[in-house]
Design a protein that fits this description.
alpha/beta; Rossmann fold; Helicase, Ruva Protein, domain 3; 4 domains; five-stranded parallel β-sheet; four-stranded mixed β-sheet; about 50% helix
Length: about 675
């Protein structure tokens, strides 16, 4: 036991050296598997550990490396559920059946098997409408996760043929009672009768039953040779030696009826489902749950790494189980247990460490040619071109390979006999442009520069981020600045970050902020509507109607839908007078019947339009009063693409006409205390 404890501690240290930014995840995985590793004798059902996170965060790599360090790679059975989900995919039960086909599975007992079900989000059993999805290929996974006992009911040719023979023999005996037998053979005088009936299907030499057809004239064994192996083999699998002992009983049967009775008992065993016991196995479930991490199509993959890390660190079991309910039935979710481990996204320092490790790894392999170093600006270029926090590690590794390995061929071709080492770096700190010069400098042993080679590198993402290529960047910057200012004014909270131009689509923009929950007050609904309208109205504040961008459709639709839903469905007006009658809706999903029939739907529509215009005017007033702040923020965003909370605060302090930081801080606190204070009458 002491050796096992020491080994698991060593494995944990190795994993933390191999993987960046997931020390807490590694601790949880090691702790979760400890009962299975230390005390397998007390395990009565599979130990299930599930890892949930964003794509590219290293879930699969971690488990593979863990299994490798446990020296159990040959005991791991890996399934890609995305592949198994396809119509042509092999069923999990078939794979497990073939794997456990031999008595000694991979040289050891079945209780130390490790199952890995990857891409498990594709194994969903409920569609987006909550309807059941049939996935026969994946059905066995739930048995593996539950009891670990699998009953394999698959077609087996030899078993079918054995069953056919038993049924045909029973029919033959009914039609020909009293057929004499001895030592497992038919009596010589009955052979012709047997061959003309039962023999047509089971003793015909044309199908290779016996080598010598002439023997059948004088001697015919009851159990055909091709079924003898089926009889002995399957019964011996059921119980060691049982097949041979039962075969001896056949040979000593004195009547064909007694012989048939033994065959029928054997047939029940042979035809029963194959049972595979994996109750002491370790099961890893690996999946991506973007729903739990609030990842949507309109979020920029370039969201600040540290900001995104702080958000994903708060994701726990509750959020994961809520997201799982969108894909699986509750009784299936229960089989995951509580060993649900969530992966946070990586921080900026994590990505920088990954870049450092990967460049060092490549250069270490190259050192037999010549020593190569990379400068800090070159590493920053890799970060700028390769880091997408939402997409994980893969883009970073690809970028390191693309930018660094292509330089190494130049090093080989250009190095001189007196070259001692080479430095690869860039001199510019601006990476948001179409291309950049990369300098490969050769030095001798005295650190004297021998020569310098300049290579022009086209920047895929830098080109897309290049402000000179985004003619509408100023309007986009005004749009996002307006959203941010109105959000701050309405909520006394700062948005987490502001992005005015992104590499995705040449100008995707978003303001990252927390919207009020579904259970909102009238005041919160009003503010949500005003924030949604602020972008478009901010553009109109600075530009003519003809020049305003037509990119506010989602904002305007969200504002209208939130307000109309509040009026029609959530009791924004008098909750009794204007409550909808259940089930009476029009083609757009809005209620037709109202308790107060004098008002009607058209009356509610009029009230919504009136409120909508009122909120538009309030939003315009805020924008007008903070025009200078919006202008300065837009100019900054036009140049820098993004604005942090700290920078936003500095701009508010310097340019705002109606807000100050101290008052914002006090107001935020008073809002948090409102309900408690009101309840206490304070």
């Amino acid at each position: 036991m002491i050796k096992k404890v020491q080994k698991l501690e060593e494995i944990k240290k190795k994993l933390k050296q191999d993987f960046v930014g997931i020390d807490d995840v590694i601790d949880k995985v090691i702790k979760s598997i400890s009962p299975w590793y230390f005390t397998p004798e007390v395990i009565e059902r599979p130990l299930v550990v599930s890892l949930w996170g964003l794509t590219g965060t290293g879930k699969t790599s971690l488990i593979r490396k863990l299994v490798e360090y446990l020296e159990m790679s040959e005991k791991m059975i890996y399934f890609d559920c995305g592949e198994l989900d396809k119509d042509s995919g092999q069923a999990i039960s078939s794979v497990i059946d073939s794997t456990f086909g031999d008595e000694d599975f991979l040289g050891g007992p079945k209780n130390d098997v490790i199952f890995v079900f990857d891409e498990f989000q594709t194994a969903r059993t409920i569609d987006i409408h909550g309807e059941e999805i049939s996935k026969a290929n994946l059905r066995a996974v739930w048995s593996v996760m539950d009891s670990g006992i699998l009953d394999i009911n698959e077609y087996r040719y030899d078993v079918v043929k054995f069953n056919d023979f038993v049924c045909d023999l029973e029919q033959f005996i009914q039609e020909n009672p009293g057929i004499p037998i001895k030592d497992g053979f038919y009596d010589k005088g009955c052979i012709e009768t047997v061959m003309n009936t039962l023999g047509i299907f089971h003793y015909d030499t044309r199908f290779g039953d016996d080598e010598d057809a002439e023997d059948k004239k004088d001697k015919l064994e009851i159990l055909p040779r091709y079924l003898k192996r089926t009889f002995i083999t399957y019964l011996s699998k059921h119980k060691s030696g049982f097949g041979y002992s039962e075969y001896q009983k056949l040979l000593h049967s004195t009547t064909l009826e007694e012989y048939l009775s033994i065959l029928m008992s054997a047939n029940k065993i042979i035809s029963s489902p194959k049972r595979i016991d994996c109750s002491k196995s370790l099961v890893f479930i690996l999946g991506n749950l973007d729903e739990a991490y609030n990842i949507h199509d309109d979020i920029s993959p370039e969201v600040d790494a540290d900001l995104f890390r702080s958000i994903t660190e708060d994701i726990g079991i509750t959020e994961v189980k809520t997201a799982l309910q969108e894909r699986f039935r509750n009784e299936q979710i229960g089989r995951f247990g509580n060993n649900l481990i969530t992966y946070p996204s990586l921080s900026k320092s994590n990505f920088e460490e990954i870049i450092e490790k990967e460049t060092s790894r490549i250069l270490d392999k190259f050192k037999n040619n010549v020593s190569v170093k990379v400068g800090s600006n070159f590493k920053k270029l890799i970060y700028n071109e390769g880091v997408f926090p939402v997409q994980g590690v893969r883009p970073v590794l690809t970028t390191v390979g693309n930018l660094l390995t292509s330089r190494l061929s130049t090093v080989i071709c250009e190095k001189t006999p007196d070259t001692s080492y080479v430095v690869i770096d860039v001199k510019s700190c601006n990476y948001d442009k179409d291309s950049i010069d990369i300098f490969i400098t050769f030095f001798d042993k005295d650190d004297k520069k021998i020569k310098e080679v300049k290579e022009r590198e086209n920047l895929n993402l830098g080109k897309l981020r290049n402000i000179d290529n985004c003619g509408r960047i100023v309007a986009q910057a005004v749009h996002e600045a307006s959203h941010s200012v109105v959000y701050l004014k309405c909520t006394n909270k700062f948005p987490s970050s502001i992005v005015a131009v992104s590499s995705m689509g040449g100008g995707v923009m978003y303001m990252d902020y927390q919207k009020s929950s579904d259970i909102a007050s009238r005041e919160e609904i009003d503010k949500n509507v005003m924030v949604s309208l602020a972008g478009y109205l901010g553009e109109k504040l600075f530009f003519s109607d003809e020049k305003c961008l037509m990119g506010s459709g989602n904002d305007i639709r969200e504002a209208w839908e939130e307000l109309s839903d509040a009026f029609y469905l959530r009791g924004y007006l008098d909750p009794f007078k204007y409550s909808p009658k259940f089930g009476e809706i029009d083609s757009s999903g809005k209620p037709l019947g109202l308790l107060d029939t004098k008002v009607g739907v058209s009356g509610i529509r009029s009230e919504i339009e009136k409120k909508f215009e009122e909120l538009k005017e309030k939003t315009k007033n805020i924008l007008e009063s903070e025009k200078d702040l919006i202008r300065e923020m837009a100019l900054y965003l036009s140049k820098n693409r993004t604005m942090s909370v700290t920078t936003f605060k500095n701009f508010v302090k310097k340019y705002s006409k109606t807000m100050n930081l101290e008052q914002i801080k006090k107001s935020e606190k008073s809002l948090n205390d409102y309900y408690k204070s009101a309840l206490l009458g304070e």
